[in-house]
Amino acid sequence: MRKSILLGSAAALLFSVSSMAENIHFPEEFVPLQVGERIIESSIFSRVDDIELAPGSYKLKLKYTDLYDLGYDDHEVVESEPFWVNVTIEAGKDYTLEFNRAKNAVAAKVFAQSPQVSLKAKGSALAAPLSVISNAQLTNTVPVQQVSNTTAMATSASEVSKLVAPINGKGMPSAAAMLDFWWQQATPAQQQAFLEKVTK
Asked: Residues 77-99, buried b or exposed e (16+ Cβ, 10 A)?
């Protein structure tokens, strides 16, 4: 009896914690890299399509990457440098990141130089444009902290306010995205060794 009451209480607590976080869905052309000072984990086997955030304002680091067919068995990957946007999450609303996809690789390269994205609340008719933050505006350089799945098991309201955790990973990441991911994880010595290997 006591065990069932304890388990029921724990489940209710976890449900109430997860209900305080809202969802942002990202199209496949955008990779969420970081929220504030927290890195969003991804793996070689899955990409993050959704993240949960407690209501509040955040700086979100994103990367645009798209694939265009140039002809039979020929394609081109277009990528942007990572960039930051300000987002404000309201309680009780889920969101989708939106953008106008370029019709060809040339137009996509122009877009990648200056990405423009909007955040649309589900059920809303209009999407709100997000302001892109330049690296010069990011004066607060705080050491980043990795976000693990255990973050999603936060048990207090103060921890929920810091909640940044993937909901699920769907599909396979592109090879280019994973090369970029692992390049950023490598030490300068490992990067140099890799460059020497591929330029032989």
From this structure: ebbbeebbbebebeeeeebbbbb
